[in-house]
Amino acid sequence: MHSQFIEEREQNDRAASEATAYSASGWLFDVVFAGLLPALFLLFAPIQRFMPAGWVDPGIYFGLSMDYFDIVKTYGWDYHSLRVSFVLPNALANMLMPPIPARLIVVFGFYLLGLFALYDGIRILWGRMPAVVTTSFLAYSPVYLLANTAGYVDGAYLAYLLCLFAALARWSVSRQTFWLVVAGMFAMLAILAHTLAVSAAGLVILFFLILRWEDIIRRPFRFVLGGLAGGLLTWLFFVVALHKIHFGISAFSALRWIVNASFTGFGANYRHGLMDWLPVTTRHAPGIVVSLTLILLLLARRSEGFRRIEVAAAVVAFAGAALFPAYDLSLKGVITQTIFYAGLAVPALVIGTASMSAILLPQAGNLRPLLAILIALFFIVTSWFAPAISAFLSTSGLNVDLFVLTACGMIIGLVLLTPLQKAQSVRTAALVAIVIVCGLSLAMNRDSRQLYKTAGTIDNLEYFRAAAFVRDLLKSGVPTGRIPLFWFQRDEFAARDGRSRELARTLRFGDSEFVLTLYDTLASLRLWHRSLFLPELKPDQSLESAPFLMNASVTVVFIDQDKAKLQAAIDSLRNAGVSCNVADRSTFHSQSFDINVTLIELHGAGDRTPASCG
Predict the structure, then answer these.
(1) β-pairing, 554-560 with 594-605?
(2) Which contacts of 89-97 are long-range, i.e. CB under 8 A and separated by 24 or more positions?
């Protein structure tokens, strides 16, 4: 009788989901909350929309998006260039329009694609109001906004993962093999954008394995082969599109070192002390609070019978919150420490958030849509004013860190474990309290504050323009066959006006810390790790041991803000016995800074006379 009761509830849920999925009404409501409001926020909110200075990887991807085929032919494959499902859309956009509108098209494209997919999947499985709550939570999250605006791959693989979720949601109500093929395509796109996305894709698939396990067991080959067919079609598309640069299985040998490093503790080189970052990394609080709430709700409602969709969401939400900390602890990784990897936990988090909101939202009447809309507005306001909220709480002496927020979530969850949870007013109050905790966690998170424009900060658009300027100079001033290598004084840019925290990024590796600046971003236009000549300029610098010094195919790209440094660099080259000439010198002007870029062509050995190098 108990199992029959649960099965009847499952069938009722399925019928309701199908009705929601194929209803023609409410499309305007869907467009407003899944697309229009997020797009307006991304367009007008006081946030950065371009890559920041000092972040090397976004600069590498910008360079690849501008000169993909040339860079791969010159330097060969590496793990950056192999992220084809991210690089190619950027490259295509740059082929069709100038860099700035191309970048904005890509940012808005991936941002909205992910939101529409998430909204569609949740609407099918749980209904419109949970879709509004969950999509709003993600759309205005500084973590998701930064994932799409900073120029890294996480915005792309997140969009693909959420499309995977939406495709499987449609399969779950239609049983059409077509949606399995589509799901396989998006899974492959996500993994090609970031190899570690296979873990997040696995959690999405696990959710549907639990939710529809009878259908999968009944026809396991259709489920598996449909997904594999989609993945294979996607792979073949890239093999054909990139045949001129020999994309294929052999290219992925370039990943061998990074895969091995991921399992041998290489990430420990980047790790800070646990208490140096964990308390202020409050973006972890929603995953902990949502997964804990779902588990306690299941325990509180066990006498009523478990709904399979709630069990599936609880399992996946808990796995998403625990998997990556477990990886870091066992293999000395940095996934939970760095915001670059924060997107990997998002699919499990939003699945858990959708299930939790479906349970706690009022079940009938006008209060259900009203509360969902108010929650959406709360997330908009909290995200818009996040710097002010953070500053107010910090100056007021309130210590709102990860531990405090998690404790608040636990208290709310324990209330739901009592018989009080049967009262709709208590469930509604609990949802409101959890929303507040999640909103504060995102406002207080330290490593996403760089998203916001505050007084005195430089608009990242200026950095982006500088990168585009240098790229155009490389394209026009470095002939085919010559290799550009960058030379600069790394700390010059950050030290010029004392704003080192804003103008530089600190990278820890082992026992050393590197302060990376805009100059490193410019060098990353040609892969950075393969295009550095020297990151320093010392008085009377000895260059005899510098790599590539006597390579007659090298063009040194010298960057400075002080013309006297150029002469010092030329003198150092001449004293090292190099023959050279200045091929071009240009200056980039912006509202906040100017930089000089000089192309110095090396021609092999010289005689150390003024005429040999100058």
Answers:
(1) antiparallel
(2) 89/156, 90/61, 90/62, 90/64, 90/65, 91/64, 91/65, 91/66, 93/65, 94/65, 94/66
Helices 386-395, 367-384: inter-axial angle, 10-degree rounding: 70
Q: Are strands 483-488 and 554-560 parallel, antiparallel or unpaired?
A: parallel
Question: pLDDT of 258-278, one tens digit each?
Answer: 777 777 777 777 888 888 889
Q: Among 236-240, 370-374, 527-531, 601-605, whose mean pLDDT is lowest? A: 527-531
Pinpoint the alpha helices (H) of 284-307. 285-300
Using DSSP, state whether 82 is helix, strand or coil.
coil
Mean pLDDT, rounded, for 404-425: 91
Instruction: Answer whether residue 55 shows pLDDT above 60.
Output: yes
Are 286 and 443 in contact by the 8 Å Cβ rule? The answer is: no
Residue 54 to residue 61: CA distance in whole angstroms: 14
Under DSSP, the state recorded for 487 is E
Please state, in angstroms and as integers, the Cα–Cα distance from residue 536 to each residue in 228, 486, 543, following that order: 50, 10, 11
What does the alpha-carbon distance between residue 184 and residue 199 come to, in Å, rounded to a whole number?
Answer: 15
Q: What is the pLDDT of residues 7-20, one digit of tens each?
A: 434 443 443 443 44
Distance separating alpha carbons of residues 13 and 6, to the nearest angstrom: 11
pLDDT of residue 498: 55
Q: How far is CA 495 from the centre of its chain?
A: 29
Q: Are the C-beta atoms of 398 and 465 separated by less than 8 Å? A: no
> Which residue in 290, 33, 238, 47 sits closest to 146, CA to CA?
47
Contact (Cβ atoms closer than 8 angstroms) between residue 457 and residue 502: yes
Is residue 16 within 8 Å of residue 130, measured between CB atoms? no
Within 8 A by CB and 6+ apart from 572, the residues are: 537, 540, 541, 542, 543
Could you give the CA distance from residue 227 to residue 187 in angstroms, rounded to a whole number? Answer: 8
